Every structure is written in structure tokens, then in C-alpha cells.
Here is the input.
Amino acid sequence: MRDGKNGGRVQTRFPPEPNGYLHIGHAKAIALDFGVARRFGGVCNLRLDDTNPTKEDTEYVDAIKQDIQWLGFQWGNVYYASDYFQQLWDFAEDLIRCGKAYVDEQSAEQIAQQKGTPTQAGTESPYRNRPADESLALFRQMNSGNVEPGKMVLRAKIDMANPNMHFRDPIIYRVLNVPHHRTGSKWNAYPMYDFAHGQSDFFEGVTHSLCTLEFVVHRPLYDLFVDWLKDVRHEDPSDNRPRQTEFNKLNLSYTLMSKRNLLALVKNNLVSGWDDPRMPTICAFRRRGYSPQSILNFIDKIGYTTFDALNEMSLLESAVREDLNTRATRVSAVLNPVKLTITNYPEGQVEELEAVNNPERPEEGTHTISFSRTLWIERDDFMEVAPKKFFRMTPGGEVRLKNAYIVKCISCNKDADGNVTEIFCEYDPQSRSGMPGSDRKVKGTLHWLSVAHSVQAEVRLYDRLWRVENPRDEMAKIIEQTGCEPVEAMKQIMNPDSLHVLTNCFVEPFAANMPSLTHLQFQRIGYFNVDPDSTTDHLIFNRTVGLKDSWAKEQKK
Here is the structure.
């Protein structure tokens, strides 16, 4: 990376457009841009690419900053493409004066038709050779606010026969007549991305422009505009210039990551917002309970290459489990409760048992959990008529209640519909965990909660938003076959089981006092966290990921 060019400096930048919330694909770019600068003792700046005010908002700027910091990175400086609007405008005027740009008054359709094909040269615009003074006057008129959008554009004069379609007189300025969130009404004509991007890098002193693979074909144009800028400034065309390098995007199975499509999901209320835990946005992963390190570990595992691949969502979930196993606090929770009464346990007696907070981190200590005569257990942990390898509770069978006693089921009560309403068992007073001689072995261990010492909670079970492996391609196929709108195509492939809200759940009081976004493991169930909307009066927990990957197994049924 340090090759003697640019004076041996390493300066990168992360340049998102503030037109939506960042998704996990951006996390890969963040990790690379900031990681390279960190590794080589350089600096990475944040530059907001705010050249299209029709889609941009300060809400997105604030969210972008929060996401970068949550991932563990800090920018050297914050810049905006709009910081350079005057310099870009002056550069465009210089190009007009030296015959390298002209104002075209054709429609977008006419310009597109004249582009030609990769194997057939394009047709020159009838305005291509208009006098520089005339183009300069029209260009200034474009910024007056009196020109209707689409009536005029400024195009670079390059080569209409070049096999690289991006060289065929690309548009570098267009009229929008929209106020900007930073510059107000000063500008009505705005630069295009390809024109602003490389020049902004140059103005800032960026040494390494790291981009995704779709910019490979843009690189010659990037270099050409930088060369032109150095020419009009009469600067030495040495190696003191930004150099673009491309890497592959992060593509995930069962995930749709286009900002346009994510915005459509939000606007059409198909999700609860940008931070809906089923979304692939960084803020959604944060709300769902992913840790920053788990995302970065996943990115390290898949690496950076020069070919695109569809990475398995299960690999990301595996990285999340691996990381949360080391950091999540263990607590007891019952999501589908049925009452268990220990008939020979003294009424009114309560024991305080020790529960380890995290076996992976003994230094985090223990907390107490109350044990009593009447408990909650999971309904799925009891079967009246059980198959041979069912090692949980069944009449006549013994199980251990975690951290407590061995109990033997003796009977159960049912309602008129045959649903079990209460289970009865007896306990062995000499079998309490940790007691001398309490190491008697049974095959099943169940978690539990004391009815009198548990707190009701809402638990949200999130799963994948899409039921197809590649929703982007499936959407395109549906639209091509039916001609429907993208939103309608989305609805056809959404997973109807992506969210289940359970309202009659119970957790131990220790979990009820955890701050927002705390990482938890509900023992024997999965990893969860405290939702930001959770209150002491209405506890809400989100499932981050199960203890095991159950999705693949479900898809084989």
C-alpha cells in the first residue's frame, strides 16, 4: 500500500450518498476504507456524496455517522461533495472554454439513442461543436432557476466511438431546481457522480479510492477527469493523485440490499422502519442484537476478491452465534409457558439459587434466581405420550431442572379441548445441583422460572424477510413475467413467518433490569436482546439468532 507514491501517504475515504440508511454491504466498505487507513497509519475521512438533493436528508447523515461509530471506527474529517460545488463549477467552465465540454439541449431519450452500442459507434450531438461562449452562457443559465429540468445538460466532449460507453460524451451537469440541505437555493444545476467523485478525491488529497467492482468500467473516466483537472490547473501530472482499486460487493442470500428497494419496503409499510430487525441495514442489525464484532468477523471470513459471489446468510449467523457466545449474559426465559407444580415441595418456601452469568467469562460472576413450588416451563418440554428419544418431561420420567433439583412427572390436568393446563411432579430433595451426592444422572435438563418470581414480557421472533434465496433476481423475473410494480413483486416473495410476536412470555427479574440492546442468551432457546422500545412496564426482547441454524433444516421439509 505504501509504494512511494503520494509522498508515502495513505489516505482513504468512505463516500456514501445520504439518501438512505447504510446496509451490511456498506459495512464491508467501511471495514476496508477505515481498516486500510488504520493498518498503514493513515487517515480515513467521511465524505457525504450529496450531489442529488432530491433524495438526500440530514436524517441519513446522522444515521451514517452513528453506524460508522457503532462498528468501531472514527473518521479523520467530515467532508461533503457539496463543499466542492464551486470548485467543480469552475472546473466545468474551464472545460467549456478549452473545448472539452458543451451544453446539449436534446432530450434524455435522444441522447440515449445516440449513444450507440458497445460494438457500434455513437452519433454526435448536433450541439457538440457549438461555440464555447454559447455553451458557457447556457451553462450559467442552467443554474438560474429558469431552465426546466431535462431541457439542458452539460456533457464532456470525449469520444463517441470509444468502446467504453462511459466515454461517449457523458453528462456531467444536470438541472434539478431543488434546494440543497446544506447549500440552500444557491445551486439549481448539480454535478453528476462520475464528475464529482474523482475531483472530490483529488481536492481532499485521497491517495487510494476503494470502490466496488461496478466501478471498474468507470475507472478510465475517473482518471481522465483527474488528468483534465490537473491540466487546467497546470499541475505536474505526477503520481500525486488518487488511484482507484475495486473489490467485490457483499451479497447475502435471502437478502435484498438495494437502497431503492429498502426505501420502498419502508414507504409501503411492509416493514416497521429502517431499523426493523428483519432489514439488512446496520441499524436493524444493531436493534436485532448483532454485535459490531460479529459483523466484522464475518467480513474477515469472506474476505475481499475481484469476483462477486452470493454469501450464505447462515455464515453470517454463525459468526453472530460465535461472538455472542462469548459476550451474552445467560438468563432464563419461558416463551410458551405451562405451569409445573412440585407437589412435595414445601408451600411458601423459596430458595435463591446461583446462576452463572456467562460460563465463557467467569469474571462476570453470578446472579440469583428464585426457586419455588410452582414454576413455568416450556410447553414443548412436556409430552404426555412421547416418542422413544424424547428426553424431556413425560409421565413417569425424570428430568433435572437446571441449577436445581431432579423431578419426576406424575400427572397433568387438561382443559375441555385436551390442552394441558398444569403438570404435577415430585422432587428429590437430595438432588439439588452442587449438593454432595447430587450428581445422579438423568438425560434431560429443563429451564424454568418461578411463577411468583418472574416478569411478563413480549418476545419478538424474527426470521428472514424473504423466502427465496436470491430475492433480487426473483423480483426481476416476476416483473418481467407479469409487468407488475416492484412492490407487488416483493409481496409475492416475502416470508409470511418472518415475525411472530409472543405476548405471554416470562423472564427472570434479572433480565428485566437490563439496559437497551443488552446481549442475552435465553438458555436452551437462543440469543436475544433488549429492544430500544422496552420499558419497565412493557418488556420487549428481540430474537437475534437461534442457538442452532434451523433454517436449512426447515427448507428441506
The CA atoms of residues 314 and 549 lie 7 Å apart. The radius of gyration is 31 Å. The chain is about 30% helix and 25% strand. The first helix runs from residue 24 to 39.
